[in-house]
Amino acid sequence: MNTTDTCETELAALYASGLMPALPALTGSDKQIAWAEKIRAGKVVEVENVVVTEMQRVCAATRLLPHLAAVAAIDAEMAATLVDQTSLKAAERTIESYRTLLLAASASWWIDHRMHDIEMLAR
Questions:
Q1: 2-27 pLDDT, tens per residue?
Q2: DSSP code of 28?
Q3: Are 92 and 17 in contact (CB under 8 A)?
Q4: How far apart are CA 113 and CA 93, in angstroms?
Q5: Which of 29, 99, 102, 117 has the highest CB neighbour number within 10 Å of its CB?
């Protein structure tokens, strides 16, 4: 199986797994929890979009490996190493930071941060 096939398989597995970790029960008053659940649901959609985009970016990079090798006058193994070390690690860090964001269990935290975009929250 080549790198592109592996990447596509991993992306399909992410879709199949639901992309996101199990979300913890929120803590707070009933009113806070009800409001925070709506806020968090919207952020889950945003995070799913980021995760899919990152994985698609990595898949696209792996598809470009032969071209990168040709243009940069390096062998395919070196090109794969460059893509693996840069794109894959960066994507893993990005995906993990967004997924971790969703583990916040305090309803008040979600309410207090409802106006922040997910890029800012994931930092």
A1: 545 566 666 566 555 555 667 899 99
A2: S
A3: no
A4: 22
A5: 102
Tell which residue, 10, 49, 44, 3, has the closest CA to residue 24. 44
Closest to 68 measured CA to CA, from 83, 58, 55, 53: 83
Q: What's this model's pTM, rounded to 2 decimal places? A: 0.66
Helical axes 89-101 vs 30-63, angle rounded to 10°? 170
What pLDDT does 68 receive?
Answer: 47
Virtual torsion, Cα 64, 65, 71, 77, nearest 10 deg: 180
Burial of 23 (0-12, 13-18, 19+ CB in 10 A): middle
Structure-token match 């797994």, residue found? 17
**Contact call for residues 65 and 83 (beta carbons, < 8 A):** yes
